[in-house]
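Q: Structure tokens for this one, please.
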Amino acid sequence: MSDIPDIPAARNALGVLRYLASRSGPVRASTMARDLGIPRSSMYQLLEVMRDEGYVLHYPEDGTHGLSGLLAELGSASLRTERLGRLARPLLERLVADAPAPVVAHLAVLGGSDVIYAGRVQGFRAPTTVSSIGVRLPAHLTATGRAMLAALPAAQVRALYPSRDLLTHRNEAGPTTLAELDRILAETRTRGWATEDGDVTPGYASVGSAAADRNGYPVAAIGLTFLGERVADRDTLGRATVQAAEALTSRLAGRA
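A: Here is the predicted structure, written as tokens:
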């Protein structure tokens, strides 16, 4: 007997996605209900939820439904992240090997106003960090996030933070207003790399730099995290992330 739980709503939703993907055009809800053996009332409710979540489009003129582009976008994003991870891995390993203190090197991408960790290399005796692959953190608290935000136009940063209320923070640290964030991003541009000290985890510090695609858009950032008390010269680590990010930018652009 299978240990897999039977959740009819989930199976029906996946069945609808497979069904629509196999058709050359939009299909009526009644036709899907008949072909998939789902009661009409349930089918209409299911399609309403799938439309609300962005997976299905409704064509009101002929009363049909079809797939949106969301699945393709999700697949493309996953492939992009995997490609970035492969390109960045040797650079992360080199950063860890060359660092003058135990560090964790990581690759992050922006996901709205969060960073999502897409790569990680932990050095010998390096501290344990929260930057596991797949973990999300507020971008304005992390060095990698600040590096990417600093490379974005101001209008786009505002779009990511539409509310002028207090910004999310941890451990009572980090910027709490957009004005404070603007100041940090300005300092990041002047310095050439981003930094944070205790804003994510007390006692830990990070530096980071953004890598860009062919159009100059910051698609990722490379960062180093370490115990703050063990590293006095953070400029050396900051410049190292700049060099690694420039190398990743070159790889993304297909240059030597």
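A few notes: The chain has eight helices and nine strands. Helices lie at 8-21, 29-36, 40-52, 70-98, 143-150, 154-160, 178-191, 234-253.
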